[in-house]
Design goal:
about 500 residues, Rossmann fold, six-stranded parallel beta sheet
Length: about 500
């Protein structure tokens, strides 16, 4: 073996979807080139820092994949420990956050190299250079430093996904993930990238609006094999927008259905693509095992959608998406963003009222409301700085930023309190209409008392003296955020998928 490469995935809030796909993809390519990858995931290794340190002897490097937010704290902790133990060992950061802010990440004394964007081939070339003691100067897609001098090599050309090997799922401990997450789940990606250019989304910055997909035949063959081999119950597709190529998406659904192998699968999409499907297509999706779809609808105000550059998003298609999903027996979540720059209270009222109407008509719909969070690298940062948003200026500062926390100077005091009250009533209204199979008499009585006044408040936008909220606190726990990948409840500071 040319050498060992240690790969680490830091801790994060929420249950794992399975082994981190990013590290399994890196491991597969490293193995093809003869390297020995070692994966340590904090989700199933509570003693992750010690395990990483134990593996560093004779390692060529330590690679850490990082998302924006609290996950950065674990990455810093392990990187510092590694440097303390082995000061000359190269520490490599990759993933979304380092790609979006490579110079700021590289400025930290415990980071030697940043892999920007797609990392499978890049990391192999770094490992080869380290194994043969060659310079990193000719490796595309990295930022690196010698002493205080930071160098940003040219970007790497995007590699078609079909040129890359199957991720190293055989390295995943599915029993351990089942114990940690409560089910046998698999994270898988049939594609990366989304063709749209929403102003708040990091996806367009990371993938530059390129849609890069596996052929339908390969997806069906791999998924059915993996589900059978590892006894998987549910597959969460991590695609940014799964049905961009509708013909391919339906070929995948048909291939899974025809295989006769039963499992649930979930994905993210935009409503315009679902509305281009026929009702029979939605029935096929449901029959193939699709149990859930997540949508970044964000707002029903035409002016806000325009500010967001979501010109593809239409309110009538939100209704139609909910209707068609119901035909296939598929649950959906509509993600909502409030506090976007330029949004008025009238815009919020429009969104609350329209979404409440959708929720009344379609019982398969849930909602995940969020305060606008400015992620690194998004196109509207120049405007946000002019409006007084303070951007974190170091890797550690981004790690201290609680996702979902309000960073917006224009949303404070009485206005923020009123928005939170509106959110409480909106969520309460939508939860009250969903009857549990075994409902306590307290909840049944509470629902009969407060349902009508709660709907009146949403229609009239009057929220003073919130007696309904106080009354229902004993019988209702409001779910604030849901994953757009699976629909499951998210902790307050957990990252959602754009």
């Amino acid at each position: 073996m040319p050498g060992k490469v240690v790969l680490f995935y830091p801790p994060y809030e929420g249950d794992p979807l399975g082994a981190p796909l990013c590290l399994l993809a890196l491991a597969a390519t490293l193995r093809e080139e003869g390297f020995q990858p070692v994966i340590i995931d904090a989700a199933i290794h509570p003693d992750y820092k010690q395990r990483v340190c134990d593996e560093l002897e004779e390692a060529l490097c330590l690679g850490i994949s990082v998302l924006t937010g609290p996950m950065i704290r674990g990455a810093i902790e392990v990187a510092k420990a590694a440097k303390s133990l082995m000061p000359k060992l190269p520490v490599i950061f990759g993933g979304w956050h380092p790609t979006l802010l490579p110079d700021e990440t590289l400025a930290e004394p415990y980071v030697d190299v940043v892999v920007r964007g797609q990392g499978e081939i890049t990391l192999c070339e770094i490992a080869q250079a380290l194994a043969t003691k060659r310079s990193l100067k000719d490796i595309a897609g990295i930022s690196w430093k010698t002493g205080a001098m930071r160098t940003h090599n040219p970007d790497r050309k995007v590699e078609p996904l079909d040129n890359l090997p199957l991720s190293a799922f055989d390295m995943a401990d599915f029993d351990a993930y089942e114990a940690a997450g409560g089910g046998r789940k698999l994270a898988y990606a049939t594609s990366i990238g989304c063709p749209y250019a929403c102003n708040y989304c990091t996806d367009m910055v990371f993938y530059k609006r390129r849609f890069n997909a596996l052929p339908a035949e390969r997806v069906v063959q791999e998924l059915t094999t993996l589900v059978t081999r590892y006894r998987i119950d549910e597959v969460a597709l991590l695609d940014s927008n799964f049905p961009v190529d509708l013909k391919r998406a339906m070929a995948i659904a048909k291939g899974i259905y025809d295989s006769g192998i039963k499992f649930k699968w979930t994905f993210q999409a935009s409503t315009d693509f679902i509305c281009r499907m026929s009702e029979d297509d939605l029935r096929l999706l449901g029959a193939s095992g699709v149990s859930y779809m997540g949508f970044g609808t964000e707002s029903t105000s035409e002016s806000v959608l325009k500010l967001m550059n979501k010109r593809h998003q239409r309110v009538n298609e939100m209704y139609e998406t909910a209707r068609r999903a119901a035909i296939g027996g598929i649950r959906v979540t509509f993600n909502l963003i409030f506090g976007y720059p330029g949004e008025t209270e009238a815009d919020r009222i429009t969104t609350f009222q329209t979404m409440s109407d959708i929720g009344e008509q379609f019982h398969n719909v849930r909602f995940s409301p969020n305060i606008f969070t400015p992620y690194p690298g998004i196109p509207i940062w120049p405007q946000l700085r002019e409006l007084g948003v303070l951007e974190p200026e170091s890797l550690q500062a981004w790690g201290e930023m609680a996702l979902g926390a309000n960073m917006l100077p224009w949303l404070k005091g009485a206005e923020l309190a009123r928005l939170n009250r509106m959110l409480d009533y909106f969520l309460l209204n939508n939860q009250l209409r969903k009857r549990a199979k075994r409902e306590s008499w307290i909840r049944r009585l509470t629902r009969s008392v407060v349902q009508v006044p709660v709907r009146w408040r949403l229609r009239s936008s009057r929220y003073s003296f919130p007696w309904e909220i106080w009354l229902t606190q004993r019988s209702e726990r409001l779910v604030l955020r849901r994953s757009l990948v699976t629909g499951q409840e998210l902790p307050k500071d957990a990252a959602n998928v754009c």
